[in-house]
Amino acid sequence: MVYLNVVMHDLVQGAVRLRRATPADLERVLEIERFSFSAPWPREYLAQHLGDDGFVVLEYEGQIVGYTVIGIKIPSFLARLEQRTRALLTGQEPREPPPVGHILNIAVDPAFRRQGLGQRLLEYALDYCRYLGAEQVELEVRTSNTAAIGLYQKYGFVIRERVPYYYSDGEDAFVMVKKL
Ligand SMILES: CC(C)(COP(=O)(O)OP(=O)(O)OC[C@H]1O[C@@H](n2cnc3c(N)ncnc32)[C@H](O)[C@@H]1OP(=O)(O)O)[C@@H](O)C(=O)NCCC(=O)NCCS
User: Fold this and answer.
1) Is 140 a catalytic residue?
2) Where would a tag sit more exposed on the chain, N or C end, judged by fewer CB atoms within 10 A?
3) What is the tally of structural domains in the chain?
4) CB 68 near ligand 1, within 6 Å
C-alpha cells in the first residue's frame, strides 16, 4: 500500500502532490470538470464532497491538473442481517460484509493527459478503498469512453454489466468492478 499514508497526510512524489481538496480548489476543479465531461457535475455537487478524505486533487508542479472523488458504500442493515443469519445457520463466525469502494469521479486536465497522472489518481483511489476495508471497488463509465475504460482495464477492472440509458443523454454505462 504505497499510498496508505496519503489518506491523512499529503503525498509528494517528485513534481506530483496528492492532497485533500479545499474550498479554494473548487474553481479549478470545476474548470477541469467542464473540460472533461459533456454533463459536468454542478458546483454544489462537488462542493458537497469538500472535506471528505475521498476528494483529492493532484498538483503537478504546484498547479492542480486532476482530481478524484471516492465514496465508500457501507453495507445496508439488511445485508448485515442476512450475513448474520447465514452465519447462525451454518455455525460459522459472523462476519460483517465489507464496505464497497465507489469511484464517483476522476479527471485530468486535457493538456496533462497521457502522462500517467490518471494512473496516479486511480492508484490513490484503490489504496484509499483498501485502507477503509473495502474488498471491492465499483464505478460506472460511458460505454464510449475508451480512455477511461482502458485505464480501468489496465488496473484489473472488468465489466460486470451494461446499464441501458444510464446517463441523462441516453448513453449506456458499463459497471466495472475490481476485487482488492
Ligand atoms: C480517463 C482519464 C482520467 C485518464 O487520464 P490520463 O492521465 O490521460 O491517463 P494515464 O496517462 O494515466 O493513462 C493510463 C492508462 O489509461 C489508458 N488510457 C488513457 N488514455 C487513453 C486513451 N486516450 N485511449 C486509450 N487508452 C487510454 C491506457 O491504458 C493508459 O496506459 P498506457 O499509457 O500505458 O497506455 C482522462 O482521459 C480524463 O480525464 N478523461 C475525461 C474524464 C473521464 O472520462 N473520467 C472517467 C469517468 S468514468
Assistant:
1) yes
2) N
3) 1
4) no
Q: Which three cell numbers stand for residue 11?
A: 503525498
Q: Which domain range does residue 92 map to?
A: 4-179
117 lines ligand 1 (CB under 6 A): yes
Position 106 pLDDT exceeds 50: yes
Q: Is residue 106 in contact with ligand 1, taking CB distance under 6 Å? A: yes
Q: Kindly report, residue by residue over 154-176, the tens digit of the pLDDT.
A: 999 999 999 999 999 999 999 99
Residue of minimum CA distance from atom 16 in ligand 1: 151
DSSP state of 148: H
What atom of ligand 1 comes closest to residue 115's alpha carbon? 11
Per the rule left: phi > 0, alpha: psi between -120 and 50, beta: everything else, 38 is alpha
Strand partners, 152: none
